[in-house]
Design a protein that fits this description.
- With 270 residues, this protein is of the alpha/beta class.
- The chain has one domain: Alpha/Beta hydrolase fold, catalytic domain (Rossmann fold, 3-Layer(aba) Sandwich), CATH 3.40.50.1820.
- It contains nine helices and nine strands.
- The longest helix has 22 residues.
């Protein structure tokens, strides 16, 4: 499901595809969207199946249950198909406006954008900004969910703040889809990813390994990638989750102002 955010009074200088993370409310990307729109960029927000309003309402069931049931039925192929459709819509509009296309995403969304890029032999985005992209996870987390492949509809309760999470928990099917995409990404990763990319990762991220992302960059000679490591003391966290790095509420005003300026500078023309 896609939603456009446009500055109707003037032609945008570019278009941006924005994608959220796993079990994150797509609306929590609004802080990033506001920054982009203030910088004369129009935004296409993609809500992946099982998130936000991207679910089929089931008779006799609440929206929350219908949404969670949609997350139980998700697959890597479904999410990839949604990414391809969103990119196609963005490209059509960019062609009509003759303007560049950018990509900004968090966690799972960042992984899906890189996965999409590897499907082409040419850059599909002029530049990317990735917040804690799930390109390389800490080893201990990967095998755990493989044990549950026969229980894909099982829901694991979420510990993330209620105001951020799209569902009360995350289905095993969603975790397995994430891991399938990670494995495919690792097998296919190449210099085709070498487009100007700014990456924000907290050094203590619970999911994404900063050292492995840096190794990925070195292994594939991604010399146009720039990683900005963030180091927050536990006292600086409003919520006890280092992976949560997408808005002022999660980072604090000072850090968010720094991130905002770096993102604007990165996406500037030239």
């Amino acid at each position: 499901m896609i939603e456009w955010f446009s500055n109707a009074d003037a032609k945008p200088r570019g278009l941006v595809l924005v994608v959220h993370g796993l079990n994150l409310k797509p609306d929590r990307m609004r802080g990033i969207i506001s920054i982009l729109m203030d910088d004369d960029l129009d935004v296409l927000l993609l809500s992946l199946q099982g998130h936000g309003s991207n679910f089929k309402k089931q008779e006799g069931k609440s929206d929350a249950i219908s949404r969670l049931n949609a997350l139980k039925e998700v697959s890597a192929e479904i999410w990839r198909s949604e990414m391809q459709a969103a990119h196609a819509a963005l490209s059509r509009r960019a062609d009509s406006l003759n303007c560049p296309v950018y990509f900004v995403a968090y966690s799972l969304g960042g992984l899906l954008g890189c996965d999409l890029q590897l499907s082409f032999n040419h850059p599909v985005f002029a530049k990317m900004v990735l917040f804690a992209p799930a390109l390389a996870t800490h080893r201990i987390r990967v095998p755990f969910f493989r044990l549950f492949h026969l229980f894909s509809r099982l829901v694991i309760p979420s510990l993330s703040p209620e105001s951020y999470r799209s569902n009360r928990g995350t289905s095993v099917a969603a975790y397995l889809s994430l891991l399938n995409i990670i494995r495919a990404f690792k097998a296919r990763a190449s210099i085709n990813l070498n487009i100007p990319t700014l990456v924000f990762i907290d050094r203590n991220d619970e999911l994404v390994s900063l050292s492995k992302v840096n190794q990925l960059i070195a292994d594939h000679q991604l010399d146009q990638w720039r990683v900005y490591p963030i180091e927050r003391h536990p006292d600086q966290l409003r919520y006890p989750f280092y992976h949560l790095l997408i808005d002022e509420e999660a980072t604090g005003s000072d850090l968010w102002a720094e991130i905002r300026q770096m993102m604007i500078n990165h996406l500037s023309p030239g």
